[in-house]
Design brief:
Radius of gyration: 28 Å
CATH class of one domain: Mainly Beta
CATH architecture of one domain: 6 Propeller
Oligomer: single chain
Strand content: 35-45%
Number of strands: 30
Helix content: under 10%
CATH topology of one domain: Neuraminidase
Shape: globular
Distance between the termini: 102 Å
Strand order of the largest sheet: 1-28-27-26
Length: 582
C-alpha cells in the first residue's frame, strides 16, 4: 500500500484542538487551584457552624506592649453534650470533679430565697454512664441532700481522693446573736461508700465561733481546699473573727487520718515572719505530685504602694512547722479599687507551677515557674487580650500533656468562656484558642424570670466562680454559678423619681460538659519575654456593655456597672508597668 506524506486538513483540526486545550489547561489550572484554596480558607475561618460541622473558635494572641488592638468576643459555644440545672430553686456554690473512670461528682447548695416548702440544703450528685450524653439527662444522676441544717452551709468545695472518694469543705458565715459577725465556720465532710445515700456521709466542725476565716466578698474562688497525694485533706484560711487577738493570722490546716473525729486536725501559722499574708476569699492551695503544698494569697500593700500584691508561699518538708514555710514571694499587684481580682494555680508533672491571674481592671495573665518559685525572678509570663477586660474568676487545669485549659467569665456577654493552649504555651508563639462554654441566654431560655413589681428589667449574668475538671481524655467539665440581676426603682411611689438600684434577686448553679474542641492553627503575636522577668502593660478596660442581656444601655445602669465592675478599675494609668521581681 502506498502511504502519502501529506497530512489531510480534516486530520489537522482535531490535533490542533487537543494542543490548544492542553495550553489553556496549563494556564487556567493555577487559577482554579487558587480559587479553591481561598474558598477553603474562607470556610475554615467562618464562625457560622451547622450542627454537623466542627464548632468554630477564635484564636487569641498574646498582647504586645502598647497595642491598641481589641479582641472580638468569643464565638458561640460548641454543641454541648450536657448542660444541667437541677430545678428552679435558688442554688449557689457549684462544684465538680471527675474520677478516673469518668464518673462526674458534683456539689451545690440551696440558698435563700426559698420556694414554699423548701429549706437550705447541701446536695451531692453522681453520674456514672457508659456515654457522656447520658449524663445530660437528669434521670441518670443520683442526687442526695448531704446536710440539711436550718442555718445552712451555703459554700462548698469538692475534691476526690486518688480512688475517687468525695471530700467536702463546707463554709458558712459566723453569726452571733443572729447577726453576721464576719468570717466563716468550716466543716469537713467525707464519704467512702455508696455516697448517694445521705447516711453514709460523716462530718466534723473544724472551727468554732472564736476562730473563723474571713469572707468579706462572696465572689470568691473555690481553691482554698485540696487533698495531698495520699488523699489527705488540707485547707488554708485566715482568722478574722479575732483580728485583735493572738490567734489572728493566716493558717495551713491539715488532717492525716480519721478526719471526722475530734482532735485529728492541726494548724500552723503561715505569716509568723511578720510579713502579712492575707488568705482571703481568693486564696488557692495546690500540691506537687509528692504532696508538698503551694499557697497563693495576697499581702496588705505598703505606704509607698497601697495596692496589695499576689504572694506565693511554699513548704517542702515537715509543713506542720511554720519555720519550714518560705517567706512570701511578692509577684504582681492586684491593683487598687473595689473591683474583682482572681488567680488559679496548677502544678505540672515536674512540679512546675502554672498560674492564671487577673488584677482589678485586667488584663488576663498566664504565668509560669519551673523551679525555686519562692524567688520572684524565676517567674515569667505574658498577658492575653480576651476582649472587654474579660478573664475574671479564672479556673486553671492542665491536661495529660501539661497544656493549660482555663474557664473564666467573659464580660462581653457575662457568660462562661473556655480558653486553651495547644502548643508553645511558654514561648513567644503560643497557640491559644477560645470559645463560649455556655451563653447566659441559654439560662434565660430554660429559667425565665419576670421582673418583680417596681423593677423595670432583669437578666441572667453567668460565668461566676467556675470550676473546671478534665476527664481521662481531657474533655472539659464545668460547674459555675449565675445570678439574676434586676434594676428596680428606688422610690416606686414617686412617679417623678426615676432613680434605680440594681440587685441580685435569684441564683442558680450550672453544670456543662462537651468534648474538647479541636484547635485551629494560627500565627501568634510575640509577647514580651526575657530570660529572668516579664513586663506587662496594665491596660484600661473597655467600657462594659449590657446589650447582650438587657438590650440598649441606659444611664440608669451606671449603678449596676458600679456593682459588677468597679469604676475605680478604669482609673489605671496606661503608662504603668509592672515587672516581676521588683
Amino acid at each position: 500500500m502506498n502511504y502519502s506524506s501529506t497530512v489531510h486538513k480534516d486530520t489537522l483540526r482535531p490535533g490542533l484542538m487537543v494542543v490548544l486545550t492542553i495550553i489553556l489547561g496549563v494556564i487556567l489550572l493555577p487559577i482554579v487551584i487558587l480559587a479553591l484554596v481561598l474558598s477553603i480558607i474562607t470556610i475554615s475561618h467562618s464562625k457560622i457552624v451547622s450542627a454537623q460541622e466542627e464548632p468554630a473558635h477564635t484564636v487569641y494572641l498574646p498582647l504586645v506592649q502598647g497595642s491598641s488592638e481589641t479582641t472580638p468576643p468569643p464565638p458561640p459555644p460548641p454543641t454541648a453534650a450536657g448542660a444541667l440545672m437541677f430545678g428552679e430553686d435558688s442554688f449557689r456554690s457549684a462544684a465538680i470533679a471527675v474520677d478516673d473512670q469518668g464518673g462526674m461528682h458534683i456539689a451545690f447548695s440551696r440558698i435563700a430565697p426559698l420556694l414554699p416548702g423548701k429549706q437550705q440544703a447541701l446536695f451531692y450528685g453522681f453520674c456514672q454512664s457508659a456515654t457522656q450524653a447520658d449524663c445530660s439527662d437528669e434521670a441518670h444522676w443520683q442526687l442526695t441532700e448531704v446536710d440539711n441544717l436550718a442555718e445552712g452551709w451555703p459554700w462548698v468545695q469538692l475534691r476526690l481522693t486518688p480512688n475517687g472518694r468525695p471530700r467536702l469543705l463546707l463554709m458558712r458565715p459566723i453569726s452571733r446573736d443572729g447577726v453576721p459577725f464576719g468570717g466563716l465556720l468550716y466543716r469537713y465532710a467525707e464519704c467512702n461508700t455508696n455516697c448517694t445515700a445521705a447516711q453514709n456521709w460523716q462530718a466534723l466542725d473544724i472551727t468554732d465561733q472564736g476562730t473563723g476565716g474571713g469572707l468579706y466578698n462572696t465572689d470568691y474562688s473555690y481553691q482554698s481546699f485540696a487533698l495531698d497525694h495520699l488523699g489527705r485533706p488540707r485547707f488554708v484560711y485566715e482568722d478574722r473573727a479575732n483580728n485583735a487577738g493572738a490567734h489572728a493570722g493566716a493558717y495551713y490546716v491539715l488532717c492525716d487520718g480519721n478526719c471526722t473525729q475530734p482532735g485529728t486536725w492541726f494548724e500552723t501559722r503561715l505569716d509568723s515572719s511578720g510579713d502579712t499574708v492575707y488568705v482571703d476569699e481568693h486564696a488557692a492551695l495546690t500540691f506537687t505530685d509528692d504532696g508538698r503544698p503551694r499557697v497563693f494569697g495576697r499581702d496588705s500593700g505598703s505606704l509607698a504602694d497601697p495596692s496589695s500584691k499576689l504572694v506565693y508561699l511554699e513548704c517542702n518538708t515537715q509543713c506542720a512547722d511554720s519555720a519550714n514555710w518560705s517567706l512570701p514571694a511578692h509577684l504582681l499587684s492586684t491593683n487598687s479599687g473595689s473591683g474583682i481580682y482572681s488567680w488559679s494555680p496548677a502544678v505540672d508533672e515536674n512540679d512546675g507551677i502554672r498560674l492564671t491571674f487577673t488584677p482589678r481592671g485586667g488584663p488576663f495573665y498566664y504565668l509560669w515557674c519551673h523551679a525555686d518559685c519562692a524567688q520572684p525572678e524565676n517567674w515569667d509570663g505574658y498577658s492575653l487580650d480576651l476582649g472587654g477586660g474579660s478573664g475574671d474568676y479564672s479556673a486553671l487545669a492542665l491536661d495529660r500533656h501539661g497544656r493549660p485549659r482555663v474557664a473564666y467569665r467573659d464580660l462581653n456577654s457575662y457568660s462562661l468562656a473556655y480558653l486553651w493552649c495547644d502548643g508553645l504555651c511558654e514561648s513567644p508563639n503560643p497557640q491559644w484558642h477560645v470559645t463560649l462554654a455556655e451563653d447566659s441566654a441559654q439560662i434565660s431560655d430554660e429559667h425565665p424570670i419576670s421582673p418583680l413589681p417596681a423593677c423595670v428589667r432583669g437578666g441572667w449574668f453567668g460565668g461566676l466562680r467556675p470550676v473546671l475538671a478534665l476527664d481521662a481524655q481531657d474533655n472539659p467539665r464545668f460547674a459555675y454559678d449565675a445570678e439574676y440581676m434586676m434594676e428596680c426603682l428606688q422610690n416606686p411611689g414617686n412617679p417623678n423619681d426615676p432613680s434605680t438600684y440594681v440587685e441580685a434577686k435569684w441564683w442558680t448553679s450550672r453544670f456543662v460538659f462537651f468534648p474538647q474542641p479541636s484547635s485551629v492553627k494560627s500565627t501568634s503575636v510575640l509577647p514580651t519575654l526575657s530570660n529572668s522577668s516579664c513586663y506587662f502593660s496594665i491596660k484600661t478596660p473597655i467600657d462594659v456593655s449590657f446589650r447582650a442581656v438587657f438590650g440598649e444601655k441606659s444611664p440608669q445602669l451606671s449603678q449596676m456597672e458600679g456593682i459588677l465592675r468597679s469604676e475605680d478599675s478604669a482609673q489605671n494609668d496606661n503608662s504603668t508597668w509592672w515587672q516581676l521581681g521588683l
